[in-house]
Amino acid sequence: MFQIKKFKNIFLIYLLFLYFTAIYYLFIKHTGGLDSTISEWLVNYYGGFTRRGFSGYFFAQIAIYFDISIRFVIFIFQSFFYLIFLILIYYFFRNMKANLLLYLCLFCPLFMTYHVAELEILVRKEILIFINFLFFLFLSLNENLKKYLNVYLFISIPILLLIWEPIIFFLPFYIFILINSMNYKNLRSLIFSILSIFSSSLIVIYFLLINQYDVQNETLMCTKLKEIFNERCYMSLLYLDTSIKENFDSLFRDIKPQHIFRYLLIYLIGFFPIIYLARNLKKKIIFKINILNNISIFYYIIICSIFMPILYAMGLDWGRWVNIHYFFIFCSLYFLLKKGNYNLNIHVSEKFKKIFYIKNKVILVFVFIIFCFGWNPKTLFKGDIASIPGYRVPYNLIKSINNNF
User: Fold this and answer.
1) Is residue 62 classed as helix, strand or coil in its secondary structure?
2) What digits encode the pLDDT tens for the residues 315-334?
3) Are the C-beta atoms of 62 and 73 separated by less than 8 Å?
């Protein structure tokens, strides 16, 4: 009990630091920043129906109604979204048992620290995907509420598709959680349930695919933004008329073997704790669909990640994709533990230490700090590995506060 209480306090302090840092930089950015942290949220329907325009149009209407800056509206909602995200994270992980492997997974630089280490990805639209998935996990854990799962997904996923359509690549993780929550009686009921749940999403996807959005639509949107909000188009606002083929061409024109090698190492090193975690989970649940009992948790992860290569081929923000991918895998695995569908070997931490011949506590702490706070990938695939975010983030924060105040 003491260890859990001590962990709760440390974890809460860690999350409070992340929130304070995020709010500070979001405030700085909203006053005139020119990166995608703001531009992505400015995308709207003033030039016609387009992908990712729902939230921007909603923010624009609020700004007009209250006669305030649209950037300030975005800042308020970003602050709110990030707060909700951290609250959900706290309640989801707060009772984590003292376990080195779980701690390495939780504090991995590919997870929460990444949001403040790489400010370009701070509270981008995937934050809503994170919130949605965490709410989904909480509903799935509650026996009295999980009957609302179908309705929740039927309504929420189409809305999220209008805000950030790449959520489609992560729907297998939702299906994986549904399988573990509902334990469908046969394959027919599973297929029928999935089709009914995502039928509304398929309609939205259809309209997104057939929608024609060209330079004239983009010009009209930019003109309206200038007239109404005195905002010019930049960064994310200028990619709406870009086709999938153009994205592919852009990537394959610039990518080099060292980029692929670097991200293979990022996956190998950063994902090693959760891969080891997956390999040491022992199944307790007996699925009614027998074929599901023959698939290991490791292969479930691979199946759920089947669309990830498409996402990497479509966009240059590989650091973001790693962060999102890590979030879905780790939260899904920890859900299985909380749900009681799987058990973790109580000796897994000791086995993990033996892999690296770690016996001394001082060396253990050193390895933990280096792994969790000693590195992180950059946002774009061309970027090299950033060093010591555990030092750089607080140092840059203090330096920025001194310069601005």
Assistant:
1) helix
2) 889 999 999 999 999 999 99
3) yes
Which of 164, 137, 139 shows the shortest CA–CA distance to 236?
164
Q: Per-domain residue ranges for the chain?
A: 2-404
- According to DSSP, the residues that pair with 387 across neighbouring strands are 375
Query: In whole angstroms, what is the distance from residue 384 CA to residue 111 CA?
Result: 18
SS3 of 81, please?
helix
Cα distance between residue 153 and residue 132, in whole Å: 9
Report the interhelical angle of 54-66 vs 149-163 (nearest 10°).
80
3-state class of 79 per DSSP? helix
Tokens of 252: 């394959």
DSSP 7-67: HHHHHHHHHHHHHHHHHHHHHHHHTT--SHHHHHHH--STTSS-TT-HHHHHHHHHHHHHT
Confidence band of 189 (pLDDT split at 50, 70, 90): very high
**Residue-wise DSSP of 170-216:** GHHHHHHHHHHHH--SSHHHHHHHHHHHTHHHHHHHHHHHH----HH
What is the distance between the alpha carbons of residues 313 and 251, in angstroms, rounded to a whole number?
A: 7
Find the distance separating the first CA and the last CA of the chain, reported in whole Å. Answer: 43
Q: What is the DSSP letter of 234?
A: -
Locate 320 and state its tokens: 């973001």
Dump pLDDT digits (tens) for 1-26: 446 678 999 999 999 999 999 999 99
Contact 395, 23 (CB under 8 A): no
